[in-house]
């Protein structure tokens, strides 16, 4: 447990981050974290105001079996399918976390206090199935502060519009490219337009766009190392931050002001008076992969108002201990960011190729994690004497 002294010390840096307009969300969830009171403690002492999950997180939590024994036994007795068992366990965890975060949700008018749960990753390239899954998950969790995660694949874009149009809040995940991010914002605005046409209250609909960070450096750094020149090596660790900063510039172009000089700006300007909320950028994959980099790099250098940073607990702890929060680190750096990405391209490293590869790998990794989870649950159900097929 965190002592009062420790809580006071760690609260300073994290409060500074919150005061800069960054919502701190925890990128992790498990039944043990819920039952032990750890999640409630992080909310109370470390300014955590939201939770994100993904198939890999659930695979690690449920795959361990810890805390799920009783529910697994009950599900086995009922003879449920493996898919149903997984959905019952994951939605139970999200529902419990949503209840813990409900006071935050109420205090912030729905802006924070959110818990995200992802559609089955095997549906990433199927629009209609994604919409149906999103509706089912929203119904199963049955909490106003749930967000349904939909991947930003080509098939995911129309699904985002449809789900937002139904009044369901959405966390768009697996965004790597600036072009795809602009398409995601368009899909969100189109969904709000559908919701307004259906007579829904736009003030009840929220969305975040999860722009992935560290994986961009992991791939581009690998390619820079292969080039091997001093010029190439000097660019290591810069592409991910540059990419994210230009994403924030794109966000400002759509949601940052009442400027309706562009088509995107005009559509948003028409929606804002109806109580519509901006789709906030969420920095995802903020755990540093390269030990040569400071472990709070993707927190310290991505401070900007109206953003979310979802952190693994190790990154949260590191930020609390030695994060360097020095104000807005994004909006003044657009020209430099463009120059850095241009320098990478000039070395023969294709931005478009990298972000396409990362999207494909992201979907594949989540599918693999989900399959591992299904296999672990199937084994547990089978060990209890009930067929899990």
In short:
By secondary structure, the protein is an alpha/beta fold. Helices cover 58% and strands 11% of the residues.
Order of helices and strands: HEHHEHHHEHEHEHEHHHHEHEHHH
Which class do the helix and strand fractions yield? alpha/beta
Give the low-confidence spans. Answer: none
Separate helix tally: 17
**What is the CATH C level class, in words?**
Alpha Beta
What is the CATH architecture descriptor? Alpha-Beta Barrel
Level of helix content?
55-70%
Strand order of the largest sheet: 1-2-3-4-5-6-7-8
Q: What is the typical, i.e. mean, pLDDT?
A: 94
Report strand %. Answer: 5-15%
Specify the CATH homologous superfamily.
Answer: Aldolase class I
How many separate domains make up the residues?
A: 1
CATH fold node name = TIM Barrel
Shape: globular
Number of beta-strand segments: 8
Sheet with the most strands, sense and barrel status: 8 strands, parallel, barrel
Radius of gyration: 21 Å
First CA to last CA: what distance? 41 Å
Question: How does this model look, in words?
Answer:
There is one protein chain. The protein is of the alpha/beta class. It is 58% helix and 11% strand. The chain contains 17 helices and 8 strands. Helix 9 runs parallel beside helix 12 and helix 12 packs across helix 16. The protein is globular and about 60 Å long. The model has no long low-confidence stretch (mean pLDDT 94).
Features:
alpha/beta; eight-stranded parallel beta barrel; TIM Barrel; 8 strands; 17 helices; globular; about 400 residues
Write the SSE topology.
Layout: H1 4-19, E1 22-26, H2 31-35, H3 38-45, E2 48-51, H4 55-64, H5 69-78, H6 82-107, E3 114-118, H7 127-141, E4 146-151, H8 156-165, E5 170-175, H9 178-197, E6 207-212, H10 214-227, H11 230-233, H12 239-255, H13 263-271, E7 280-284, H14 297-300, E8 307-311, H15 313-322, H16 334-346, H17 351-383
């Amino acid at each position: 447990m965190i002592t009062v002294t420790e809580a006071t010390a760690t609260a300073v840096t994290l409060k500074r981050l919150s005061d800069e307009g960054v919502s701190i969300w925890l990128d992790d969830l498990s039944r043990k974290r819920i039952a032990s009171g750890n999640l409630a403690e992080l909310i109370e002492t470390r300014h955590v105001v939201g939770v994100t999950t993904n198939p890999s997180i659930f695979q690690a939590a449920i795959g361990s079996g810890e805390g799920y024994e009783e529910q697994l036994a009950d599900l086995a007795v009922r003879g449920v399918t493996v898919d149903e068992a997984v959905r019952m366990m994951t939605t139970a965890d999200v529902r419990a976390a949503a209840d813990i975060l409900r006071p935050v949700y109420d205090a912030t008018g729905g802006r924070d206090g959110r818990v995200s749960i992802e559609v089955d990753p095997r549906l990433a390239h199927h629009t209609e199935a994604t919409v149906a899954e999103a509706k089912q998950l929203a119904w199963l969790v049955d909490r106003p502060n749930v967000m349904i995660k939909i991947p930003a694949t080509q098939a995911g874009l129309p699904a985002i519009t449809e789900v937002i149009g139904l009044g369901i809040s959405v966390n768009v995940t697996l965004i790597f490219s600036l072009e795809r991010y602009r398409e995601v914002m368009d899909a969100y605005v189109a969904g709000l337009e559908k919701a307004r046409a259906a007579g829904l209250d736009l003030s009840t609909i929220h969305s975040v766009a999860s722009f992935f960070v560290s994986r961009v450096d992991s791939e581009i750094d690998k390619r820079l190392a292969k080039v091997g020149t001093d010029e190439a090596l000097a660019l290591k660790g810069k592409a991910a931050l540059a990419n994210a900063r230009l994403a924030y510039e794109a966000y400002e172009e759509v949601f940052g002001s009442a400027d309706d000089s562009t088509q995107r700006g005009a559509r948003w300007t028409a929606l804002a008076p109806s109580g519509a909320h901006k789709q906030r950028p969420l920095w995802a994959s903020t755990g540093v992969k390269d030990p040569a980099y400071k472990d709070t790099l993707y927190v310290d250098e991505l401070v900007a108002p109206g953003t979310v940073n979802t952190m693994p607990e190790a990154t949260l702890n590191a930020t609390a201990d030695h994060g360097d929060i020095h104000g807005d680190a994004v909006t003044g750096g657009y020209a430099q960011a463009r120059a850095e990405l241009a320098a990478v391209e000039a070395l023969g490293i294709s931005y478009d190729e990298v972000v396409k590869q990362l999207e494909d790998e992201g979907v594949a990794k989540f599918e693999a994690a989900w399959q591992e989870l299904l296999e672990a649950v199937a084994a547990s159900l089978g060990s209890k004497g009930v067929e899990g097929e």
